[in-house]
């Protein structure tokens, strides 16, 4: 499956040593991930390869960092980060293993992680983060809902603090494996809240995520019309226009320009 | 009504000296609550008996604590707690009255209380808390909505900080006395947000609350099937399974085990 | 348009030097706003006249404060306030210009502004604030939604901290110019969250805003019936009543009294 994964065109891949691996299989998983990760990084230079280690206070953490990281990986995913101290511990483990260039993708997926998110994401070694709704709700003692209202507060908080810290943010997993509508609705809300992408648990979800986090052709087309009208008005000294029933001033024009720039990057 | 109340099978009861008692009836209410509370505690040893005193800065607070607490009560409910200083004042009043064993159930129901919730709930004398939507909205100058979206932020915040502080959290009252559907929808969201139970204002609501905050038979049944499949896969070295269209790994298995354990406690 | 504006009966007016004015038109706009603002203040003594200056770190800020403020204005609107330091800078600029009586209406419309909202709104020179959803979402890198769920957290946070700081709060703009239903639904949620009024971008919206932020005749009528019943019961020593299927105690009675008082002020 790993060899075929790049066909789905993800921006990155996370090889998991944590929840996806049973306790008695951790050592084997390290070896396998190191080899498979190195192959992926070698054959797909644009693919960001990460390894997810076990949480800091588990018995596996040190060996995961020392022996599980493939050549060519750009970082480690540290689950259940709860404080700046957790980031320091991961950074020290990376440095002890000689992995000075690798950054940390921090999992914010506990109540403590959400409460302490500001100090965590401002740590310089943290380059990215994700919000994990399943683990968060389990830690909280709550229950997942189809509408995700129960995580609107932590999810909003994580995306906003990530933007404030200049850290890339990834939205929660959708555990329903093949339900496209559920995935797209969830991704749409995630993008609205400021997340830059989404964790996927199946290759099928990758295409949906890529589409959901890029402006649609309709959005791009509307943004172009808006900028035409706005620039035309600005040349005549007007800073505000009525455009298709909506008042448009500088902030909306800025957003339209960002949509066009985002589309041009594809 | 108090004598019949235990038939509804609540986990606890709060005898109110605050909002339910007119200013000119406070002294009588103290005496009555002391007697009725002592009787309830004596006849129903598993029932947690609380007395709600008036807020700290009212003229009634000191006498409520000194003279209103029944024998056998396990704590006092302090409404409108706004800071750690309010908790200290209540703790000192309890100590002066010789009630060293009683804990505080803190009402978080003002804007200041929601903003300072972390310092309040981490006070060691606080054993539990509730979120009060009616008082919060009145203090805020807002308006209640049928969908409770206006309190999603403070409600999420209180439940999460309670989980972080290791404090039992109780969800908001539903003032519609006999509307079962309204109560159950509200309770469902409260449970999703991490509350452990719900304040009730009528015996009829108690049964709905008990059902809403316990896993349903369908949930328990599904959790058992999930754990069977998961353990079977784990024995074969797999940490992740596809179960009824959903990806299941350790966090979801943990939640399923919690559901089964919760049902076994009933 | 400015001369006709008071017919729509707004509580205040903001003359904009920021987003509505193209960069090459800033100097002309200052002169025009000073004259038009002074005329409005002179002819409509009950109208609160504000001038919106450009953000602190722009090249226009100092001249806007020094030369753009009309006689009779009661304050300046400072967009994109991100910290207490931004408030200090604006306060100093006002003092340098000899405008010691003018207060600051702070725009909370960036991620940093929302995160630092407590320190901003507790600055004594800040008399009011608004939440700006368009700029906030642009700064966050998010996307606006029809249901505004993407700004529920920042919007709730701003209104609550404004209430805590004793600062008047104004709800987000609705950019759809003539869609009454969209405006009223948005205003209803804004009022529920504790905002005291709403920024309008067209005279048509002013009447909708005034109605949305005042109690409706039905609300006032119900409040009167409730208070009648409540006071009657209180005279007989009861602090709680069942009123039209709802339990009513002191907090609900307090809200009803506020509704009646609000209607009497109109």
How does this structure look, described?
3 copies of one chain form a homotrimer. Chain A has 266 residues and is of the alpha/beta class. Chain A has 2 domains: 5-212, Alpha-Beta Barrel (TIM Barrel), CATH 3.20.20.60; 217-265, no CATH class. The first copy, chain A, is built from 11 helices and 9 strands. In chain A, strands 1-2-3-4-5-6-7 form a 7-stranded parallel beta sheet. The first copy, chain A, has a two-stranded antiparallel sheet with strand order 8-9. In chain A, a hairpin with a 2-residue loop joins strand 8 and strand 9. In chain A, helix 8 packs across helix 9 (203-212) and helix 10 (217-235) packs across helix 11. The first copy, chain A, is elongated and about 70 Å long. The two termini of chain A are 26 Å apart. Chains in contact: A-B, A-C, B-C. Chain A binds chain B through residues 18-22, 24-25, 111-112, 114-115, 132, 134-135, 137-145, 149-150, 152-154, 173, 175-179, 201-202, and chain B through 118, 152-153, 156-157, 159-161, 163-164, 188-189, 191-194, 196, 234, 237-240, 242, 245-252, 254-255, 258.
Describe the structure concisely for a colleague.
Chain A has 11 helices and 9 strands.
Would you spell out the secondary-structure blueprint of this structure?
3 copies of one chain form a homotrimer.
Chain A: E1 12-16, H1 26-43, E2 48-52, H2 61-67, E3 75-78, H3 84-96, E4 103-108, H4 111-115, H5 117-121, E5 126-131, H6 133-140, H7 152-165, E6 168-171, H8 180-192, E7 197-198, H9 203-212, H10 217-235, E8 241-243, E9 246-248, H11 250-265
Parallel strand pairs in A: 1-2, 2-3, 3-4, 4-5, 5-6, 6-7
Antiparallel strand pairs in A: 8-9
Helix pairs in contact in A: 8-9, 10-11
């Amino acid at each position: 499956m790993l060899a075929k994964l790049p066909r789905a065109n993800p921006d990155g891949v996370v090889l998991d040593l944590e929840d996806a691996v049973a306790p008695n299989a951790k050592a084997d998983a390290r070896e396998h991930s190191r080899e498979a990760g190195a192959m992926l990084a070698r054959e797909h230079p644009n693919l960001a390869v990460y390894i997810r280690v076990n949480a800091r206070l588990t018995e596996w953490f040190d060996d995961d960092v020392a022996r599980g990281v493939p050549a060519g990986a750009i970082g480690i995913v540290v689950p259940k980060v709860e404080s700046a101290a957790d980031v320091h511990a991961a950074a020290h483990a990376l440095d002890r293993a000689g992995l000075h260039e690798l950054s940390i993708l921090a999992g914010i997926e506990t109540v403590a992680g959400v409460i302490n998110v500001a100090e965590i994401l401002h740590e310089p070694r943290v380059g990215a983060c994700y919000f994990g709704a399943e683990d968060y709700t389990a830690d909280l003692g709550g229950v997942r809902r189809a509408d995700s209202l129960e995580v609107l507060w932590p999810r909003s908080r994580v995306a906003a603090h990530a933007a404030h810290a200049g850290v890339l943010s990834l939205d929660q997993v959708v555990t329903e494996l093949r339900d496209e509508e559920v995935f797209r609705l969830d991704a749409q809300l995630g993008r609205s809240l400021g997340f830059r992408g989404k964790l996927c648990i199946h290759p099928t979800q990758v295409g949906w995520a890529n589409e959901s986090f890029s402006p649609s052709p309709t959005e791009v087309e509307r943004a172009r019309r808006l900028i035409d009208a706005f620039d035309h008005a600005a040349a005549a000294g007007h800073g505000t226009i009525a455009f298709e029933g909506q008042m448009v001033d500088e902030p909306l024009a800025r957003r339209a320009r960002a949509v066009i720039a985002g589309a041009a990057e594809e």
